Amino acid sequence: xxxxxxxxxxxxxxxxxxxxxxxxxxxxxxxxxxxxxxxxxxxxxxxxxxxxxxxxxxxxxxxxxxxxxxxxxxxxxxxxxxxxxxx
Length: 87
Known about the structure:
The protein is an alpha+beta fold. It has two domains: 1-40; 42-87, SH3 type barrels (Roll). It is built from one helix and five strands; from the N terminus they run αβββββ. The protein has one helix at 2-39; strands at 46-49, 54-60, 64-70, 73-78, 82-86. It has a five-stranded antiparallel sheet, covered by helices on one side. The N and C termini lie far apart (61 Å).
């Protein structure tokens, strides 16, 4: 009877293992990569915010980045609101 329970649990374990490798592991890697990108921000980098605003970093403070979005127009954006850095 104990072996029957183990045999019934094997498909669940396989599904959980596949879920981990297909969903959780790539999401964790992407999150770590985003953290490294945020930490490497410096003035002059071109960025895109989560809201789709394109601009160039004017200055970096603790958790806030000043972004020049056109001419002399600057906005302060939380670092976590930066989606990606443009090359």
